[in-house]
Structure formats: C-alpha cells, structure tokens
Hints:
Helices cover 86% and strands 5% of the residues. It is mostly helical. It has one domain (24-109). Strand 1 (65-67) and strand 2 form a beta hairpin. Helix 2 runs antiparallel to helix 4. The radius of gyration is 24 Å and the shape is elongated.
Amino acid sequence: xxxxxxxxxxxxxxxxxxxxxxxxxxxxxxxxxxxxxxxxxxxxxxxxxxxxxxxxxxxxxxxxxxxxxxxxxxxxxxxxxxxxxxxxxxxxxxxxxxxxxxxxxxxxxxx
Length: 111
C-alpha cells in the first residue's frame, strides 16, 4: 500500500469511526456508563474521606467504644474494605452489561 492509498484508507476509517461516535447507540452507551460511574465515584470519595473528616471533626463520636477497645472509627475503617469489595462486584456486573451494549454497537456498524 502506497502513501496515497494509506491516506485514503485512514480518511475512510476516520469517517467510519465518526459515524459510530455520532450514533444514538454509542451515545446511549456512553450516557449509561456515565450515569453509573459518576454517582459511584462520588459515593466512594465521600465515604472514603468521611473517616478522616469525622475523626477530626467528631472525635467523641468516633472514639465511642463498641466492643472492648474497638471503637466507631475502627468499625468505619473496616467497613471501607467491604464497601470497596461491594463496589467492585457491582461494577463488574454493570461492566458486563456495558460490554453487551458495546458489542451491539460493533455489530450494528460491522466494525
């Protein structure tokens, strides 16, 4: 393939991918991903930064003993591990659905 043919092929590929990107199916996929990912990220960040903020702003609450030497701060810190696992599982399930929608877009445009 010479340089001219390569440029022609690249221009055709660009137009093809622009058509995919402009399609309602692709835009719907991107919107669905954003609708899931943005709230989950916000929740994660708020939950993650709540521990140091609460330790600093509400030390009496966080130092309240629950079982022996275990206080609210320890339980909250431990809950962050579980929260991370839960988010990972939920995301894996959602990603499978996103992959199915992406495959539908690919099949529609014969990419």
